[in-house]
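cron nightly-structures :: item 1 of 1
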Amino acid sequence: MILDKYCAYLIRIDVIETMHLNLGGYKRDRKMITIQELLFNRGLDAKSKIKLVRHKENSKDLYNLYRTDKAEFFEYQNSQSNDVFNGVDYIVSFIGEEGFQSRFIGVYKLTDRKKFADDHFEYQMEEVKEQFDDLKERVIIRWKNAISWHQWIKNEMEIIEIQPGLHYKKFTDYSDFTLSFNELKEIVTEQYSDWKKMLSVTKGIYLISDTKTGKLYVGSAYGEEGIWGRWCKYVLTNGHGNNKTLMELVMDDPTHGNNFQFSILMLLPRTITADEAIKKERLFKNKLGTNSFGLNNN
């Protein structure tokens, strides 16, 4: 595919010759590939009035909201306390991540604007999917001037990575991650080799946190496929893994599994028996009180 070849070029390039582009008044003279170059090459009209927008909230996981409840996310994006999109033709939307990193989530055309009595503004937007849909959630840029969350397109933003999947989180260490259920689903569905390799060779005690209720579930993985095999069951069962209490939650609300986060509490030897693993599991249940106050029931 043309996209894959272009992405490979962006990812692997170390030094490129100084380039000078003049696209509808936009100029660049830098040794870098910018989001502007990618978007304009894809057909975004450089003569339009375009803003780059970076959504970032310390109190909200906006990326998880975007993945699980797009209607609520777009309500968040389209409602503003100030008239920040007045006169704008398009916004290029990003979600802020660690540091200055920002993840591209689409190009949106503004079609209407309304001011309300309390002085807040509502904007109607239509997503421009045809040229940009396959780039969504994959392109990571370095955002300049983090204080300013909306900036005109003339401000260059460097592309630092184009990822292979929607939210490809690399495996680093067993104790160094939590996975949302959506992230786990992607890892299992796409069979990401680093995760599969490391989780398949490991048995352990794991924790599921319900971010909606704050309750915890402790489980153990001691089968031949290790933690990987056990967690695959959660993906295949929409989040409950055939655990009684979790099953009740998912049966009541099929989307409830989206509130679950997965992590590892303790690694177990490959030679451990089922009885020994269950004994360790009970120890953590007692420590965390998950039988009395959490989601375990045995």
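cron nightly-structures :: done
The longest strand covers residues 101-115.
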